[in-house]
Design brief:
By secondary structure, this protein is mostly beta strands. It is built from one helix and 28 strands. The longest helix is centred in the N-terminal third of the chain and has 18 residues. It starts with a helix and ends with a strand.
Amino acid sequence: MKKAKRNWVDKWLVAFVLFAPTLAFGWFYCDDFVYEFNSKDEVVVKGLQVSSQGESYTIPKKVKYKSRFYEVVGIRDSAFTWRGHLKHLNMSNSIKDIGSGAFSGCFGLVDMKIPNSVTNIGDYAFCKCSHMASVAIGKSVAHIGEASFSGCVSLTNITIPNSVISIGNNCFGGCSGFTSISIPDSVESIGYGAFNNCIHLESIVLPKTLNKIESSLFNGCKSLKSITIPDGVTSIGANAFSDCISLTNITIPNSVKRIGYNAFSGCKNMTDITIPDSVKKIDFEAFSGCNRLVTKIPKELFVDTTKVIEKWIDCPECKGEGKFWVQCPKRKGKSGTCSCGECWRFGGKIPVRCKKCNGIGTITIEVD
């Protein structure tokens, strides 16, 4: 009885090994690629075979397996991750989806043409493709995922088609090769930090459909000289334009109601900003370090200010930084621990908001 049961188990295992690849969600090899079943008629690319170490490949529109043809409709998550030898990959126009991290870390990849059949580019899809100089995005892409092109430092330009609805968080973060970019009006949302640290970005055209400038959207864009915030934007997030040191002036539309923490901090060359009456709240240190700013700003910006600004000077107490540092009262000696859990990072000191300048680094004086 035991022997018969064992024989049955052995036969079952043999059958599973032989026929598992034909089951739904199984996989099989064909030429240079590994494919995974997506449905009874479709497959997705799971990756390259281990032996495939070439520089250039083409994903076919259809693939044959056991006398049957399957349509190749997508690229699996992490399919080509860290394939440093890969320089060129041609996709067929049957591909509809590029999975998360599909080409992440492919530092040898030099270009990419995304076909018009693709509707979605997954999170981190081309993250850290450091030698990729050009990308052509197909005209059917609706969503560009989080950090999908972040760290592509050689990417100098990219055309976003008017099919795109959303651009994910940190999407183009650290793309230091960009000098300009235009975003079509089809885009309804741009995630936080989408263009942070694009250090050579000089100008950008934002869509008229945008209703919010997310946090850190242009943080560290040191070359950004001009930007127009569209009518309809209701809020500017924290650190949205912080350290944009080339920005000299900006106009806030009368749709904006709130300007976030550190929104323009470190914009040390900004001299003029237009803030409408629609703005009801400006958060702490929104203009910290804007030492050259000479403009009229609503008094609501300043806690203790009763007059409209006439002239700005550097605050002698905080030296233009908007805050100064004092010994943490909760710290027990220089080498002891502190219950606040933070001051150890700053040599036992904590930041205190400057009451003279209300946290923006400058104070006002009357001008005769």
